[in-house]
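--- STAGE predict ---
source: upstream dedup step, 1 unique chain passed
mode: sequence only
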Amino acid sequence: MDKAPGPSELSASPPAIADSDSSSPHGANLQRSLTQRQLTMLALGGAIGVGLFLGSSVTIRLAGPGVIITYLLGAGIAMIVAYAVAEMAVVHPVAGAFGVYAEIYLNPWAGFAVRATYGLVQIIAIGAEVTAVAIYFGFWFPHVPQWLWVVSASLALVAINALQVGRFGEFEYWFALIKVSAILVFIAIGVLLIVGAGPKPALGLSNLSANGGFLPFGMKGVWLALTLALTSYMGVELIAVTSGEAKNPEQSIPRAMRTIVFRLIFFYVLAIGVMLAMTPWNRVGSGEGISGSPFVSAFAGIGIPYAASIMNLVVITAALSSCNTDLYLATRMLFSLSRGGYAPGWISRLSKNGVPHRALGLSTVGMMAAILLAKYAPARAFLMLYGVAVAGMFFVWAVILLSHVRFRQSLSPEDAARLPMRLAFSPYSNWLGIAALLGVTAATFYVDGLQYSVPAFLPLFIAMSLVYWRVSRRNKNAKGETTTVSTVP
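--- STAGE serialize ---
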């Protein structure tokens, strides 16, 4: 594979973005210690989490077996975003990633807004993930208060993220590998039960057409379910965030991204399909609220000793892994905002082992919110947190696609052809992805538990915009002229 063109090699001369700054007053820079296998598992760890193992209980309730189509649609949208962000990350492998790209190719406000939104979304998602851990532990210990599990998980995850990034990457590699292996085992066992390769009669595929048929709520249910199913794929953009700490980004990023996208499609679609074939959809998607993982329910109903408990252990590991990754992402985005001049400089200072420990401390706000919600509103805590994150991520993905349109316009046809991976049919695929995101955003108003996602996000978005204008005016007054905030990663 040819080496990807770097900023200095492109004839169209897109804006170069500094990759290091040893003179930064805020301290040293992030270390390039993450390998390709760690990048791949980090992205899988971020994407395979509560969206699949817990959120699927809501998507199944909305679409029935037709949720399989929902996850296929989500995969198509995710692939567009993944390829778009990977193209830009190869040319500009920096911390802050698509936030920096938005600043360069759109405008400074967009760069700030997408970084601030992404950091906020990850902080909120952290709270949702640790809440999921508490819900899972309720399977074994129904009488133990949720907030105790939230506190325990939070302390452990902060300790892991305080490690040097190479050690963190290795820890997360094995963390994610456990749940990936477990999904494969789940699929294998499910297929054996479906075809009857064992002492029990074959389950067959009758559950996919029973209880109202394959589309009990029509295509409307399929589309409404996309509001949460799409969030299951949110994590593919993680490769760009880690590019500032990746070894050989021009080679490792394309390889990792290709691997991630197709693995996610395989895991999600096949795992959901097998689960729905094993158990009637109206059983795993029944009830109000979220009280456990449908994957655990599926194993609880097949009669294999300890199968449900083993699966519950797996989904706990999955939630911890996903939360671990979210905490990493939030920390790096706060670091990027600080280095860009949008947040106080002290936030971007690094510890002796190269970790932005002050940004890490601020990123625990979501955990604190989760502790309070777990204590005072345990039944609604997960969707209350996850819903706000949903709206924010739709905005982030839309900005990524818009940035990519301008990025492509800055390249000559020859330079675009030399990229190691390219988004097909761009810019038409970009506009298709943006239209789909707008449609899914509108659908949140019709989903119980998510109808307040956009209204809750808007005040936060307005507040972030006001912060930007205030910082911009301060910088303008300090220098006596209009300036662009530094994009040092």
